[in-house]
Amino acid sequence: MKHIIWIALVFFVSQSINAQLPPVFGEEYEGKATTSDMVKTYLKPQRIVWQSDNSGKSIKNVETLIKKGNGQVAVNDQNLFRFISTEAERPGILLDYGKEINGGVKISMGIRKSKTPLKLRLRFGESVGEAMSDIGGKQNATNEHSLRDFIIEVPWLGSIEVGETGFRFLRIDVVEANENAPIKSIDAAFVYRDIPYLGSFESNDERLNQIWMTGAYTVHLNMQNYLWDGIKRDRLVWVGDMHPEVMTINTVFGNHEIVHKSLDLARDQHPLPQWMNGISSYSMWWLLIHKNAYDYHGDLGYLKEQENYMIGLLDQLSMFIDKSNKEILDGGRFMDWPTSEIPEAVHAGLQAMMVMTFEAGSEIMGIYQKSELQKKYLKVAERLRKHKPKGNTTKQAAALMAMANLEDAKKINEQILTKDGVQRMSTFYGYYILEAMAKANDYKGALKVIRDYWGGMLDLGATTFWEDFDILDTKNTGRIDELPLPNKFDIHGDFGEYCYVGYRHSFCHGWASGPTSWLSQHVLGIHVMDAGETVQITPHLGDLRWAKGSFPTKYGPLKVSHTKNADGTVKTEIDAPDGLTIIQ
């Protein structure tokens, strides 16, 4: 359990004063392994957010729920938390477990006169508003993908464990009248991978430190049976979503088997000529992920396992180019949701992705020592470069065009990426916007984007990063860890579109973790090369005075520390593992 305690300590030290959270994440009293590195631990609530009765008549001894316990009921338990219901009142409480987690809840009950099971309604929520909501209605709470609103029965002098979803808050209500129920504990059953955080980031800006850690934790939670997009919704392997997630895993956890397992699942579930997840760009992301993984870890054996599929995929993609060298991909033509209704943006993004995919494919063929295919796919990339998409004004597609060298990065940054601050961004493509800004050497601007956009979620109480976030929605809006107020918008329930309307919106989405890998790569300046054999260190501190951290390499953790001198130069100290070549 040492790893989860460590991250909890780091996280809560970095929490804002307003959060008023304790220095450790819950009280562990039991743990058990479920697979090789999957474990479960039980956590006490951190605070009582709300209770239906404060008079002491229908709810008693509520403070016992947040005290450290042992999880074991006994015949002589005294002064337990107690629900007392009547015909007129069915009491309820709302618990806060301090931080978003994946799992369920374990409820234990003591002795009472009636030995019939106690019926309780449970409502899990990623926000207070969601936990207080009913299914349906304008704010669109759902039980889709994972049940989060249902009725259970708790046995007399026993325990029950239920639920498998992503949540931070839990509302519990008594269902029937005339109950007098002593409850020993209501503990979260937290399921996660007990793996060490090999990468780290620290600077003189605590906001950036917290953003780096929140991105890492967001992906960590989604490393379940496979690498999911979200722990509440969709709990699926979406290959496009995986690209920023894998970059974060490379940065924080190193070469983890869940990446191979999830990539292979996508390949085997979508034999050619199918597009992965029905989306042509997601098949391209699959190939680009493989290229990134090889660049970082140098696992040639695994890369060779993909040879037949990869050649087939590249040949298939090459059939979707017209005589003017324009991509004409079929299937789902999708980049991200905000651009999905803008054909010019979708085309510009797909054209750029085709260029990057065939360039990466050509390099992979070189690794396979297939020189003819290497030349063939490079020529396809050169053909695609001859077509320059017109009419795009979105930041997402513009970022990809800059990354693919279809447009000048500095021009793109000045004319599109920096326009209107962080308006019209998306959490998924925010990563590529940051990459394009780095290519334009606008590191100070990129740091401001991270502080304003991802920091905007933290300002609203986020402990993980969200499926989508619109900075304009923050005006007159309450926090996710507070009860919704009638004179303020509910950031969770009142906004969202496409597949994330209202409370259906996922508040733990791995594709939103981009700043974690970006800060390590560009601020710490850690650029992995030569299949993980070499690291070039070129820090860009922007407006920071200092930054330091660690990075997992194939030879072990690399540690760097950068301090800005009075004349603007940077002093760098490096602690590299044996076998790793360092270039400065």
UniProtKB/TrEMBL annotation:
Pfam families: Bac_rhamnosid6H (PF17389)
Keywords on record: Signal
Keyword Signal assigned: yes
Membrane-spanning ranges: none
Coiled coil: none
Keyword Signal on entry: yes
Domain Alpha-L-rhamnosidase six-hairpin glycosidase per the UniProt entry, residue ranges: 198-523
Leader peptide range in chain numbering: 1-19
Lineage: superkingdom: Bacteria
Annotated GO biological process: carbohydrate metabolic process
Protein name: Alpha-L-rhamnosidase
Annotated organism of origin: Ulvibacterium marinum
